[in-house]
Design brief:
Blueprint lengths: L2 H6 L2 H8 L1 H5 L1 H13 L17 H4 L6 H8 L2 H20 L1 H11 L4 H12 L6 H12 L4 H8 L11 H28 L4 H9 L4 H26 L6 H7 L5 H4 L2 H11 L3 H30 L5
Helix pairs in contact: 6-18, 7-12, 8-12, 9-12, 10-15, 12-14, 14-18, 17-18
Length: 308
């Protein structure tokens, strides 16, 4: 019997009353979510208006889908959408399997001290500020930095790699992998910790090697976790991080570094085109939701694991 029917017949209500202390812990999260995620939805209507601060949201005239059509017709539409998809899909292809591989590798280690040292080393980059990370990238890839010295050592002229649009995508994705791979492996290690040790013992008795244990025990254990995280990653395919992309941008690599979030910031905050930027942001969120629903439905059919 589902939740609403249980509440109607009183069983669910009695459970809530019996465990009211646990439900009280939900109150701050529910209040914060309502205040910062649902109340702002009221302002989304400016995407369908020609908003001016003097008239306010209600006083601004309706223009329908004019702001959306304006975005579709601009020359920036193809550039920002393609750049966003490129960086996001590239990041998922590279960044999704590597934390899994790292977790499987650390889980198979038999030396606890070396395992702890490796975990510490791989976790540390996650706590580096994004501003510091981008500053390090700029220093390393500058003509006078590490990359410049290496090219000079091999007799080539040093170049400013951050000014190269082709290099930008690789730098953006792989620096993100380096920073987040260790931290992303934590959830997979937690899933692997739930494996019954007797399964490994039985596999050893049957003559299974480490690779066979990994394929037949470890991977099936973390498969549902991998599926859920992949669905969530697909749902944010157009949400390429604003801060890092904006900090790495310059006039020379703008052809590849301009993504939807940086474009929204420039037209909305810097140029005060509030209705237009709201329309671009709403379009971004709608596409993310459609992709999330499609991937979730496909996952439910193929693996019987889904968010809903």
């Amino acid at each position: 019997m589902n939740g609403p029917h249980r509440l109607l017949n009183g069983k669910g209500f009695r459970q809530v009353v019996k465990n009211y202390e646990l439900y009280l812990f939900l109150v701050p999260a529910v209040v914060l979510t309502f205040c910062f995620a649902y109340i702002p939805i009221y302002g989304v209507q400016i995407a369908f208006k020609n908003f001016t601060p003097v008239r306010g949201i209600w006083g601004s005239p309706w223009v329908g889908f004019d702001q959306f059509l304006r975005f579709f017709r601009t020359n920036q539409f193809k550039i920002v959408v393609s750049n966003t998809f490129y960086l996001s899909i590239y990041g998922i292809i590279v960044g999704f399997p590597l934390p899994i591989a790292l977790a499987l590798m650390m889980n198979s280690m038999t030396t606890p001290r070396f395992k702890r040292i490796l975990q510490t080393i791989t976790y540390m980059p996650y706590f580096i500020s994004m501003v510091v990370l981008v500053s390090l990238i700029n220093i390393f890839l500058s003509p006078t930095g590490l990359a410049g010295h290496i090219t000079q050592f091999f007799g080539a002229a040093p170049q400013n790699l951050m000014a190269n649009p082709v290099v930008f995508g690789h730098t953006y994705v792989w620096s993100g992998v380096w920073q987040g791979m260790g931290w992303g492996s934590i959830i997979y290690l937690a899933a692997l910790s739930s494996v019954d040790p007797t399964l490994y013992e039985a596999a050893t008795i049957d003559g299974a090697n480490k690779w066979q244990k990994l394929v037949h025990i470890d991977l099936p254990t973390i498969a549902p976790t991998c599926t859920i995280l992949l669905i969530l990653s697909a749902g944010g395919v157009l949400n390429v991080g604003f801060e890092k992309a904006f900090l790495m941008q310059n006039n020379l690599n703008l052809l590849r570094s301009e993504v939807i979030n940086t474009y929204i910031y420039k037209v909305g905050i810097q140029n005060t085109q509030y209705s237009y930027s709201a329309a671009v942001g709403l379009f971004n969120n709608l596409i993310n939701f459609v992709i999330l629903a499609a991937v979730n439905r496909l996952s439910g059919k193929l693996s019987e694991t889904s968010l809903w």
